[in-house]
Write a structure and sequence with these properties.
The complex is a heterotrimer of chains A (286), B (357) and C (384).
Chain A lengths: L10 H27 L16 H8 L2 H34 L3 H7 L8 H12 L4 H10 L10 H25 L3 H9 L4 H29 L3 H5 L8 H9 L5 H25 L2 H5 L3
Chain B lengths: L6 E12 L2 E12 L3 E5 L6 H9 L6 E6 L2 E2 L10 E4 L11 H11 L4 H14 L16 H14 L4 E5 L7 H18 L2 E6 L2 H7 L2 E6 L2 E6 L1 H6 L4 H6 L4 E4 L1 E2 L4 E4 L4 E4 L9 E6 L5 E3 L7 E13 L2 E8 L2 E8 L11 E6 L4 E5 L2
Parallel strand pairs in B: 3-8, 3-9, 6-7, 7-8
Antiparallel strand pairs in B: 1-2, 1-4, 4-5, 9-10, 11-15, 12-13, 13-14, 15-21, 16-20, 17-18, 17-20, 18-19
Chain C lengths: L5 H21 L2 H6 L6 E6 L6 H11 L2 E6 L3 H9 L8 E5 L1 H7 L5 E2 L3 H9 L23 E13 L5 H7 L13 E4 L2 H12 L9 H17 L2 E3 L1 H10 L4 E6 H9 L5 E4 L12 E11 L7 H8 L3 H8 L14 H4 L4 H6 L2 H9 L1 E3 L6 H13 L1
Parallel strand pairs in C: 1-2, 1-3, 6-7, 6-8, 10-11
Antiparallel strand pairs in C: 3-10, 4-10, 5-8, 5-9, 5-10
Helix pairs in contact in C: 8-9, 8-17, 9-17, 10-11
Classes of the chains: A mainly alpha (286), B alpha+beta (357), C alpha/beta (384).
Bound molecules: adenosine-5'-triphosphate and magnesium ion.
The site of adenosine-5'-triphosphate has 11 residues of chain B, from strand 2 and helix 1.
Chain lengths: 286, 357, 384
């Protein structure tokens, strides 16, 4: 017998209600406020003005695309570099440590308890003139190090460094989850080690690669400290633009519009990728 | 088939140790060209370890493996003309049925058209619907996946096919069908099959020869009939199904004595060996007697219980502390009642004397 | 790593406060909550230093009060927080000199102090703060709007091992127009001060209305300076880059920014005030003076005025001068009781030796008439 019940009639739903409300208040409300602000006239501080598109017009007539380009470009470069760096590392970890490798990669997250800014300042001291690296190079080899600190390359370095654990962990998990019998079966069917890798291990570990890439991409698009600290603001990512709009420029509506734009761009990119690579398909539906 | 064909595979003193444990212990064996050889044994007896060494996934600690007289101990799996069907099947979940079957051909750079043609032939031979070619392999049923795994191995065109309990996770009826199909494939291809199973029935139905493993050792090798009718040890006889085992001592010429039953039994004179300490009688050779003189060996007991086993009925008869099993065809049931006193007996030629190990 | 989400976090925080603001104006939760007695709590919106435990803890324990202080590094942000409804939240606001009389009083964001009670404190301050002190008074000169404490010259900072103090003072802002300096200077991020600095480098007074030609010149200068700079960053970055030799000088800075490095013994880092420049009266430097005012909070805490008195005490004034973060001269150094608390090293850190002449060569921080326009140009230039 099918009974018509109100949404809240089920005890489970009723029990979940406080959490839903909390989620709505803590997550949806600020988001709505941001969207709302993005339609307010420039440099106003309330939501009761007549909505306008001027902020979006400003964004598109302005050179915002430059910072958007830097954010997306650096995030993409970070993801590519991380994929290239982490895959062999993860592969080696799984080979050597087997099941323990995922636990081991968690060790890479230990530095995360130290504030990112402090870690990045550490790198500044490492790369700065007379710092650890240039100093060592000069005293040991008499080599003068070219400019690295305060360049886009330094920003990329910082991002790769900061987001490494977020790529390494899912990737290691992905590779560790490839059943050993898949490798054995492929090898038994005549595949060389390289063919086993290309035909079986790589495709079967793509979910890890994909999840790691999406995660690091979304995080890296939101990066700001690397460009500020290691890049010496040589480049301005869009997040910094948003910060400027909300602080120095005191133009909340413009900041909100930038934030909405960023969210949209990232969501669309993520959706495209998810659509392109159906995770279910790769993992094998059961 | 055994003695006549040339051995394709020879094992000489093959041993595999994991730490202190000898998972496979000093095995000598020849497997003939085109033979269906089955390895049975309890869990942990080293069956998988043995077959993995033969397939090249594990390296023997000592001893030699010879394929057509060529030592292959150090040949990696991908360079051996052999192929394995795993218990888990190990199908590639990111590939379609067709791609799975064609895998070995793709590895060999066979052109796509030839590959597809061969895959479709195999699918037909294994009763897989043609439109499964592009089906996601993870969406196939258990039996279908079994067939895909076999087709994938056959596409490799191996000289020897290894099977590690491929049917153990399949329900009885389908297993029977697949057993038959496997046997047919064996006939059609003429390839050498080395097959592991837990199931005695499976071994009996399909094999040319059976090897029984216990604690890493191959304790008896022979045709299903030999293994069944002349087990060499209590272990083998018990492994081959329900049997009546009576610990005995030799009484001299043609007779043994059971201490526990306080009785002596006649046996064929040739059967007595010095260390033969167990008398084995299969339940179907025991029968209910009207008088002790109806058989040369007889015992008095109480009918304790009865079980219907498909085509046969099994009766449990208590003689003192010991329970004897007697089997009769369903069409000719015993008319006694439970707790009745009954007489059971057998003929000396139906008794086997085996070592107590 | 969560620090890096600064913008996003700020963003949420800001939007949350915006949402709260919205609610406040319509439903008025603050009004409801504020009926509770607030004589045991105090909320201060300030530049860093006043929010340090060194300064606040003695006050907290003596009044057994809950004191919250939030530090920001930007005046317009603080004022906009009040404008957006947080006038119901804060009791004290600590910003640079012009805002109280030019903006906050006319907008009724702050309220005047009891002149009889507070004016005597000015008498004990350094001579230039003698009452009635311009920035502490309203336009009519009748109302006292706040108290002065920290101040300092703020033009640019050089490494005197690379550029002598004399060269820097003589060349003034033109230093940064020298192509030879390209790639050897930094910019201390502080957008309003950066706008002042670019105006000075471009050769005109930031505090006067600007002609379109001047705006164009500003844009050209901003782009050129940003192109030639080595690094933009915070105080720590600038000092580190100066000490290591990555840069020889940096734009917009002074005692406030150089003092932490000087206190560490790097006396070759020095805030410089140009001898002459495009500012009013041909002056070359800009100085800031903080004015702390009582917010026009409808349910303001009585502790607000008590706190203003508390920080006038010589010991507390000395603590404020050397609170964590940056170190600065305080107006109360005019009182010998206070001055004697400063050690020789501390005086050296805040460039006491040249403070008077630097202040004399500086105009006081003011509001740029077309600030928004110039700031937009500056921010856009940063990106290209
Ligand atoms: N890689 C290994 N390392 C250590 N010990 C192993 C390894 N592989 C197998 N063994 C041990 O060797 C013994 C034989 O194992 P094997 O898998 O060959 O048994 P099996 O006869 O196939 O058993 P089952 O019927 O349960 O599959 C077992 O005791 C097992 O624990
Ligand atoms: Mg096994």
């Amino acid at each position: 017998m099918i009974e018509k019940t109100s949404v809240l009639a089920q005890p489970g739903r009723r029990a979940a209600l406080p959490i839903m409300v909390l989620l709505a208040l803590g997550f949806v409300a600020p988001l709505l406020a941001v969207v709302g602000f993005s339609f307010m006239p420039a440099r106003t501080f309330g939501l009761w003005h007549e909505p306008t598109l001027e902020n979006y017009e400003t964004i598109f007539s302005d050179n915002t695309y430059v910072s958007l380009f830097w954010s997306l470009g650096l995030a993409s470069a970070t993801v590519v570099l991380l994929a290239l760096i982490c895959y062999p590392v993860a592969y080696g970890l799984v080979r050597v440590f087997g099941r323990w490798s995922t636990v081991l990669t968690l060790l890479f997250t230990i530095p995360l308890v130290v504030s990112e800014n402090i870690r990045l300042y550490g790198w500044v001291l490492f790369f700065i003139k007379g710092g650890v690296l240039p100093g060592t190079l000069r005293t040991l080899f008499g080599v003068e190090m070219g400019d690295f600190l305060f360049t886009p390359a330094a920003v990329l370095f910082g991002m790769v460094y900061v987001y490494l654990p977020f790529m390494l962990f899912p990737m290691t998990l992905g590779i560790a989850m490839v059943p050993n019998q898949m490798r054995e079966a492929a090898r038994d069917l005549g595949a060389t080690r390289w063919q086993v890798f290309r035909e079986v291990e790589l495709p079967l570990s793509t979910p890890g690669l994909m999840i790691g890439s999406l995660l690091t991409f979304v995080l890296a698009v939101g990066a700001i400290a690397e460009a500020k600290v290691l890049g010496g603001q040589r480049i301005i990512p869009i997040t910094h633009d948003i910060e400027i709009a909300f602080t120095y420029a005191q133009n909340w509506p413009l900041g909100a519009a930038l934030a909405v734009l960023l969210m949209l761009v990232v969501s669309v990119l993520v959706l495209i990728v998810l659509r392109r690579f159906d995770l279910d398909q790769i993992l094998g539906k059961r | 088939m055994t003695g006549t064909s040339e051995p394709i595979l020879r094992l000489k003193n093959v041993r595999k140790a994991f730490g202190n444990l000898a998972a496979v212990d000093d095995i000598n064996l020849s497997i003939g060209e085109g033979e269906f050889f089955t390895i049975v044994g309890p869990s942990g007896s080293g069956k998988t370890t043995l077959i993995r060494m033969l397939a090249g996934m594990e390296r023997p600690t000592s001893g030699d493996i010879l394929l057509r007289d060529k030592r292959i101990n150090d040949t990696p799996a991908n360079e051996r003309p052999t192929c394995m069907v795993f218990q888990s099947l190990a199908l590639f979940p990111h590939r379609t049925v067709g791609q799975n079957i064609e895998f070995a051909l793709k590895i060999r750079n066979v052109d796509p058209a030839t590959r597809a043609k061969r895959a479709r032939e195999l699918m037909q031979q294994l009763h897989l619907p043609a439109d499964y070619y592009s089906k996601n392999v993870t969406l196939c049923s258990g039996g279908e996946r079994q067939r895909v795994a076999l087709a994938r191995a056959l596409a490799f065109d191996p000289q020897i096919l290894f099977f590690d309990e491929p049917l153990s996770a399949i329900d009885y009826k389908l297993r029977k069908t697949l057993e038959k199909e496997l046997k047919d494939i064996h006939r059609e291809t003429g390839k050498t099959f080395v097959y592991i199973t837990h199931s005695l029935e499976e071994a009996m139905v399909m094999s040319d020869r059976i090897g029984v493993m216990r604690r890493g050792k191959l304790i008896q090798v022979g045709s299903p009939n030999e293994i069944y009718s002349t087990p060499r040890s209590r272990f083998v006889s018990e492994f081959m199904g329900d049997v009546n085992v009576i610990p005995v001592e030799s009484n001299g010429a043609g007779s043994v004595r059971s201490q526990t039953l306080g009785a002596s039994f006649k046996v064929p004179p040739a059967a007595i060996e010095s260390k033969a300490q167990c008398l084995v009688v299969r339940p179907e050779f025991l029968r209910f007697l009207n008088s002790p003189s109806d058989a040369q060996n007889s015992l008095k007991g109480v009918l304790y219980n009865e079980y219907a086993l498909g085509s046969r009925i099994q009766y449990q008869v208590r003689v003192g502390e010991k329970v004897f099993l007697v089997e009769k065809l369903r069409q000719q049931p015993f008319k006694g009642k439970l707790d009745d006193e009954v007489l059971i007996g057998w003929d000396p030629e139906n008794s086997i004397l085996v070592a107590d190990e | 790593m969560f620090d890096s989400k600064l913008s996003r976090r700020d963003f949420l925080k800001t939007s949350a406060s915006a949402a709260a603001t919205l609610a406040a104006t319509q439903v008025g939760p603050f009004a409801g909550a504020a009926h509770a007695a607030r004589d045991k709590e105090l909320n201060i919106l300030c530049w860093e230093g006043y929010n340090s435990a060194q300064v606040l803890d003695p006050f907290r324990s003596s009044k057994s009060a809950t004191v919250k202080a939030e530090s920001l590094t930007n005046d317009p942000t603080m004022i906009n927080r009040l404008r957006a409804g947080e006038i119901n939240v804060w009791d004290l606001i600590n910003v640079n000199n012009p805002w109280a009389r030019k903006i906050m009083l006319p907008e009724k964001l702050i309220k005047p102090l009891d002149r009889a009670k507070f004016e005597p404190y000015f008498a004990k301050m350094m001579p230039q703060f003698k009452p009635p002190y311009k920035w502490a008074m309203d336009d009519s000169g009748k109302d006292l709007l706040g108290m002065a404490q920290r101040f300092g010259p703020y033009s640019f900072v050089v490494n005197t091992d690379k550029i002598s103090r004399k060269t820097a003072e003589d060349q003034g802002w033109d230093l940064f127009n020298d192509p030879k300096l390209a790639g050897r200077f930094g910019i201390l991020e502080s957008d309003d001060w950066n706008v002042f600095g670019i105006c000075c480098i471009a050769g005109f007074d930031p505090y006067q209305p600007h002609t379109p030609e001047q705006v164009a010149k500003f844009e050209e200068t901003a782009k050129r300076i940003l192109k030639n700079k080595k690094v933009v960053g915070d105080i720590a970055t600038m000092n580190q880059a100066m000490i290591s030799g990555e840069i020889d000088c940096h734009l917009t800075g002074g005692t406030y920014s150089a003092s932490p490095a000087r206190a560490d013994g790097h006396l070759n880092l020095r805030g410089v005030t140009p001898n002459k420049g495009p500012l009013a009266g041909g002056k070359g430097g800009i100085a800031w003076i903080e004015i702390t005012s009582v917010v026009n909070n409808p349910h303001g805490s009585p502790l607000a005025e008590q706190f203003l008195e508390y920080v006038q005490a010589p010991e507390v004034a000395h603590t404020v001068a050397f609170a964590e973060g940056t170190f600065n001269p305080v107006a109360q150094m005019g009182n010998p009781e206070c001055f004697k608390l400063f050690t020789k090293d501390q005086l050296e850190a805040i460039q006491w030796d040249s403070l008077e002449e630097e202040m004399a060569r500086s105009v006081e921080y003011d509001i740029v008439p077309d600030y928004d326009k110039l700031l937009d140009i500056w921010n856009a230039a940063k990106k290209s």
